[in-house]
Design a protein that fits this description.
Length: about 300
Amino acid sequence: MATGESFRSLAFAFRISQSYITRIIQLVLKSLSSRLTGKLLKPPSPEDLIRIAGEYWDRWNFPNCVGAIDGKHIRIFCPGKSGSLFFNYKDYFSIVLLAIVDANCKFIYVDIGSYGKEGDSGIFGKSSLNQLIKQKEYFPPEKKLPNSEISLPFVHVGDEAFRLETHMMRPYTRGEARNDNKKNIFNYRLSRARRTTENSFGLLSQVFRGFYTPISLKTETTDQLVLSACCLHNLLRDRYLENVPNYYYNYDPNEPQPLKNMMSLAKSGGYANFEGFLVRDEFKNFFNSEQGAVSWQDSRTQGTDI
């Protein structure tokens, strides 16, 4: 997980048979995923979501945001008798890691193991988190925007792969943003908040080098590996945020990201609902008002196509 070494290389290095190394990996990953999830990936409470929303406003200038959502393809070798289930639009076999990330690049929620042929919106639609959202048991009540009397619901921010809903914000289309600077500014502010997902996936792959190569494990074991890596990522982020001298977190900003792994999902978000349009327009108006604007947004969006 940390180096991406093959089983054959590990067998030569430690003089242990490949079959025994496989057994060790299975036992360790099963233990890590079962013991760490309850401590490092606990379901957030309404109080946690309100705190996360405050951090998103303070650090990324997006109010009432309780997480950024995105998915990545985790490259694997073709599982036996799986046909084209794991074959994705990038022409390789993968499982999908769908994650929601807070303002400090920590994972709040992960969905691991969906087929590579599936898209972000479909995976999120069948997830346990989405069922809680539909039952109105996840988000806190609406809250007023900063320095404003307008109350809006708490939301997740995502890209074009997700459908626009009351609690899910996605950017305006390029054509709309090109012809309306206010919509262009909204897209900039949403992209600024959504970048935490890309930062998280980048940090995850930098520390756990196994994500730079195809993973040659059974799909069940691969799911446990990805879950364990997400838990350990949160542990390392906690240590980093404590500002202690030894946080065991080395990040090289000059090193390129994996070119054949951790790829984004296809941009196919499906239908939107009417309430989602209204909420997005209210955020757009807030970002273009004196209460919600930031000083640099005009210079960043002028002459750009977000």
